[in-house]
């Protein structure tokens, strides 16, 4: 176990600045912070009015989220209308083709149909296992 301070000298190359053998030392993660771009007065102003900034940005987030959801709804509605129009066009084409060839669809009442559901369940294998309680 040891300690080695590395400096990033290029994107994929580290330079060892300091090395020391240490007992029971596992890891240390550190990177220097860049200097702030704000003056001390600006930082005080931000800390003082933080709740106002927070409310402002939360409102912006809510508005953006609503706009995104509305755009998603509008896109779904547009796609649904496009699909419905395509189905209607194809249905008209099929009916026109059937009339042209003399095979019109018969008009069937909804009561002439019935729905049948069959559920088939098959047991492939059954095993029994006794579990002992280890703790008390």
Could you please describe the fold and organization of this structure?
- The protein is an alpha+beta fold and about 140 residues long.
- The protein has a domain at about 1-30 and about 45-105.
- The protein has 2 helices and 2 strands.
- It has helices spanning about 40-50, 50-100, and strands at about 1-10, 15-20.
- Strands 1-2 form a two-stranded antiparallel ribbon.
- The protein is extended.
- The two termini are about 40 Å apart.
- The model has no long low-confidence stretch (mean pLDDT about 85).
- One of its GO terms (molecular function) is translation initiation factor activity.
- InterPro entries: EIF3B (IPR011400).
Uncertain segments are none
- Note the gap between the termini: 41 Å
Order of helices and strands: EEHH
How many strand segments? 2
Report the mean per-residue pLDDT as an integer: 83
Largest sheet features: 2 strands, antiparallel
Number of helices: 2
- Read across the widest sheet, the strand sequence of neighbours is 1-2
Going by helix content, strand content and strand pairing, the class is alpha+beta
Radius of gyration: 36 Å
Helical content class = 40-55%
Large-scale geometry? extended
Per DSSP, what share of the residues sits in E-state strands of 2 or more residues? 5-15%
Highlighted features:
alpha+beta; two-stranded antiparallel sheet
Helix-strand layout with pairing:
Layout: E1 2-10, E2 13-21, H1 40-48, H2 50-101
Antiparallel strand pairs: 1-2
Task: Provide a short characterization of the protein structure.
Strands 1-2 form a two-stranded antiparallel ribbon. The chain has 136 residues and is α+β, with helices and mostly antiparallel strands.
């Amino acid at each position: 176990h040891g300690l080695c301070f590395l400096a990033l000298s290029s994107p994929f190359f580290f330079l060892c600045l300091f090395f020391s053998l240490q007992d029971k030392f596992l890891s240390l993660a550190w990177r220097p912070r860049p200097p702030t771009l704000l003056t001390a007065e600006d930082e005080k102003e931000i800390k003082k009015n933080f709740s106002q900034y927070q409310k402002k940005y939360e409102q912006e987030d809510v508005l953006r989220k609503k706009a995104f959801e509305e755009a998603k709804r509008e896109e779904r509605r547009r796609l649904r209308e496009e699909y419905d129009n395509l189905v209607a066009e194809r249905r008209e084409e099929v009916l026109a083709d059937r009339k042209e060839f003399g095979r019109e669809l018969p008009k069937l009442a909804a009561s002439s149909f019935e729905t049948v559901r069959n559920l088939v369940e098959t047991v492939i294998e059954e095993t029994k296992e006794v579990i002992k309680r280890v703790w008390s």
